[in-house]
Automatic annotation (TrEMBL):
Official protein name in the record: Alanine aminotransferase 1
Cofactor section: pyridoxal 5'-phosphate
Function of the protein: Catalyzes the reversible transamination between alanine and 2-oxoglutarate to form pyruvate and glutamate. Participates in cellular nitrogen metabolism and also in liver gluconeogenesis starting with precursors transported from skeletal muscles.
Top-level taxon in the UniProt lineage: Eukaryota
Chain segments carrying region Disordered: 1-24
Main localization of the protein described in the UniProt heading: cytoplasm
Entries under InterPro entries matching the protein: ALAT1/2-like, Aminotransferase_I/II_large, PyrdxlP-dep_Trfase, PyrdxlP-dep_Trfase_major, PyrdxlP-dep_Trfase_small
Family annotation (Gene3D superfamilies): 1.10.287.1970, Aspartate Aminotransferase, domain 1 (3.90.1150.10), Type I PLP-dependent aspartate aminotransferase-like (Major domain) (3.40.640.10)
Length: 501
């Protein structure tokens, strides 16, 4: 062997792979312990197995099914929803401005593209924007909010364009988390909850304070439950934040205006910062009425509108748009301390800016074609069709599940999901325990292996002890959704029979 060869032969294997011969600097023992506590059920072990099954099917493996249907996540276009024509036309023009000379594009799409490009550095969406977002788009967002809320003023300086709503939520929570031990910030989140919240709180080392939605009353909010949660939390932390998802994820409920007023009063009484996750505001199937927290706050008068601190969030990923991959969104902050607002602006500046194509897409959502413009008729037809189709599928899902003994499904009033309760035999619960799994995880994994349907177990979102659920999106095309519902129904009957004998 050469000298170099002898050295390599005697070198520890991990050193050849880039590690120090004295051991790695970063190990499971030395890494940030908060990260290890993070869990995100929507993309957890069920989805990992679904990906493996898809690969096995492609390689010719024989399964009891011919495809894996992923009903685990609210990814509209992955489920087959077609993009809205006007949105993609303008984005195409912004991305490749030479198309502005093409007669195939309507003039209003070209006008939108020119306006957006003129606001970009070098007239290119490949340039960075201001950290808070492109100014004319923030102005359009403010005008959209004013129209939505019946004329209540919105200040563009209070608008931040963000990488989807998730990034904005994490950023606000970073500002709010402080203290040590019993003074550590407590954050009230609904149970069931969207795992972004629990994962972020674990990552930040904050205290998760659970309050339970009332499943027997269509997942409604309960004042007595908030008071219980806050009273108990004050024994070990400092509850400072109340998070609400409206319409609900994973539960699909739409809270009444009265309940929103109750939330605002409670926040004022208990001195809580309000976070309103409103990304499903167009996905309302019950009475077609969405009440924004900001609108209700200001209609309650100065006693509340001048004191209650509120951050509200919206996104281009849901509603009729379904443009998840562009990562567009915004937040509006109300009654934020000026010094804190300066710190917020600094914090978003660290990441330079939100994706500019996502900002451009957001502008089209808040500033869609008007009745006197050539794209208006097609835009309204497509938008209406998507929302009407979702409303039909929401009703179909509720009715199908409630026809199955052992499945109880509340009305899907909004958003894109259902969270039915399933009754499981004790033998199945015991079997899951033997396998080291939650019973609904065992149920969902069996469903995936036997029927090729990928759902998320309710334990990943939180649920009352002794109850079991799963979350399913209603996004698959209607005919495929019928197949999904039939497969789940048949599986539940078969599963129940197997563990009841």
């Amino acid at each position: 062997l050469s000298v170099l060869g002898r050295r390599r032969a005697n070198m520890p294997q991990h050193a050849e792979n880039g590690g120090s011969s004295l051991g790695r600097v970063l190990t499971l023992d030395s890494m940030n312990p908060n990260v290890k506590r993070v869990e995100y059920a929507v993309r957890g072990p069920i989805v990992t197995r679904a990906v493996q099954l898809e690969k096995e099917l492609k390689e010719g493996a024989k399964k009891p099914f011919t495809e894996v249907i992923r009903a685990n996540i609210g990814d509209a276009q992955a489920m087959g929803q077609k993009p809205i024509t006007f949105l993609r036309q303008v984005l195409a023009l912004c991305t490749y401005p030479e198309l502005l000379e093409d007669d195939k594009f309507p003039e209003d799409a070209k006008q939108r593209a020119r306006r957006i490009l003129q606001a970009c550095g070098g007239q290119s969406i490949g340039a960075y924007s201001a950290s808070q977002g492109i100014e004319c788009i923030r102005q359009d967002v403010s005008r959209y909010i004013e129209r939505r809320d019946g004329g209540i003023a919105s200040n563009p300086d209070n608008i931040y364009l963000t990488t989807g709503a998730s990034d904005a939520i994490v950023t606000i929570l970073k500002l709010l988390v402080a203290g040590q031990g019993s003074t550590r910030t407590g954050v009230l989140i609904s149970i069931p909850q969207y795992p972004l919240y629990s994962a972020t709180l674990a990552d930040l080392g904050a205290v998760q304070v659970n309050y339970y939605l009332n499943e027997d009353n269509c997942w409604s909010l309960d004042i007595a439950e908030w008071k219980r949660a806050v009273t108990e939390a004050r024994q070990h932390c400092n509850p400072r934040v109340l998070c609400i998802i409206i319409p609900g994820n994973p539960t699909g409920q739409v809270q009444s205006r009265q309940r929103i007023e109750d939330v605002i009063r409670f926040a004022k009484e208990e001195r809580l910062f309000l976070m309103a996750d409103e990304v499903y505001q167009d996905n309302v199937y019950k009475d077609n009425t969405f009440h924004s927290f900001k609108k209700v706050l200001f209609e309650m008068g100065p006693e509340y509108s001048s004191t209650v601190e509120l951050a509200s969030f919206h996104s281009t990923s849901k509603c009729y748009m379904g443009e998840c991959g562009f990562r567009g969104g915004y937040m509006e902050v109300i009654n934020l301390d000026p010094g804190v607002k300066a710190q917020l602006t600094k914090l978003v500046s660290v990441r330079l800016c939100a994706p500019v194509p996502g900002q451009a897409l957001l502008d089209l959502v808040v500033n869609p074609p008007q009745p006197d413009e050539p794209s208006h008729a097609t835009f309204m037809k497509e938008r209406t069709a998507v929302l009407a189709n979702l409303a039909t599928k929401a009703k179909l899902t509720e009715e199908a599940f409630n026809a199955v003994p052992g499945i109880k499904c509340n009305p899907v009033q909004g958003a894109m999901y259902t969270f039915p309760q399933i009754t499981l035999p004790q033998k199945a619960i015991d079997k899951a325990k033997e396998a080291g799994q939650e019973a609904d995880m065992y149920y969902c994994m069996r469903l995936l292996e036997e029927e090729g349907i990928c759902l998320v177990p309710g334990s990943g979102f939180g649920q009352r002890a002794g109850t079991f659920h799963f979350r399913m999106t209603i996004l698959p095309p209607t005919e495929k959704l019928k197949i999904v519902l039939e497969k789940i129904s048949n599986f539940h009957v078969r599963f129940t029979k197997e563990f009841s004998e």
